[in-house]
Design brief:
Elements: E1 10-14, E2 18-21, H1 27-39, E3 42-45, H2 56-68, E4 77-83, H3 92-99, E5 102-107, H4 127-136, E6 140-142, H5 156-171, E7 177-179, H6 185-193, E8 198-202, H7 204-208, H8 232-243, E9 249-251, H9 260-263, H10 278-288, H11 295-307, E10 315-324, E11 344-349
Helix pairs in contact: 3-4
The structure holds (4S)-2,6-dioxohexahydropyrimidine-4-carboxylic acid (DOR) and zinc ion.
Length: 365
Amino acid sequence: MANETPSPQRLAMTRPDDWHVHLRDGAMLSLTVRDTARRFARAIVMPNLDPPVVTTAQALHYRQRILDALPAGLRFDPLMTLYLTDQTPATEMAAAKASGRVHGVKWYPAGATTNSARGVTDIRRCEAVLAAMEDQDLPLLVHGEVTDPAVDVFDREQVFIERELAPLLERHPQLRVVLEHITTRQAVDFVTQAPPRVAATITVHHLLLNRNALFTGGLRPHHYCLPVLKREEHRRALLRAATGGNPKFFLGTDSAPHARRDKESACGCAGIYTAHAAIELYAEVFAAEAALDRLQAFACFHGADFYGLPRNTESLTLERKPWAVSPQIGEGEDALIPLRAGESVAWRIASELEPSPIGHEDCVA
Ligand code: DOR
Ligand code: ZN
């Protein structure tokens, strides 16, 4: 006799948040904001525009452009971040905190990834800023990869943790830190053992794919991101972390759109676009792990609690009903090629968003 519980076909949950997303600017913004805001109530918006968002004033202007691009009827609160540079003045941290709109400062090691040229050359140049962040209780959001060309690209996260992150946490005992888009067993172990002020985001593409996906039947530029996909043993460690119920781990898609021409190129950009199906793909992952009952905490509670923000009160219902992802979003060479382009996703959003009694009324388009 079968004693297995049938896997659920519907999942009603609190509306989730995305604690790491790239929305970009200009023409691309209306595509990305629509996809993200259809799913997520709030998102931590990365500041690596060209030029980057380095001041609170720039962050507030960018936030307004995001709200201007928001389709009518969608409620969405963009949570802004600043891009740390060698020149960032410590005084900017008080302004950032006082704005109520800036929720973190992003550390890109210079040269580590897309639009990181103006990033930090040596974090020891930023000691005064980091001390001000401790005073203001502004979290540091970390792209955790060394740029040392002598370090193998698959080892850059683990070496970063040893060389940069562990000493930094010692030097700044009050600083709250999010290690973004973790990809390795070593990062999972480090964050698990660290004090509660240290947390991590986990992308859906690192939960779904291992590094074989870069080479399936040929070179796959749309599976190229940074940190690069890792071995299966690391993917398994991420799955255990995401589904394990530990509040230090929460959802951050790192959805990172690049025009098709920039991906399908002799020197293709790093980034995977997942905003079009993000929560649906996380549901697939959690269902495959028989952990759907853990999705809500990972997607809706842990991040809000870490950032000291209220949990959302709106709801979202997912149902297990496959749908086909369109082969591209937008037109021609400017189009985005989303993850699973032309293939199917097992879960879909069943509910229209319900009107909220609370919340982000200043963000209604
Ligand atoms: O794959 C990535 N894309 N990783 C990053 O760190 C940056 C991002 C982007 O902005 O395209
Ligand atoms: Zn990112």
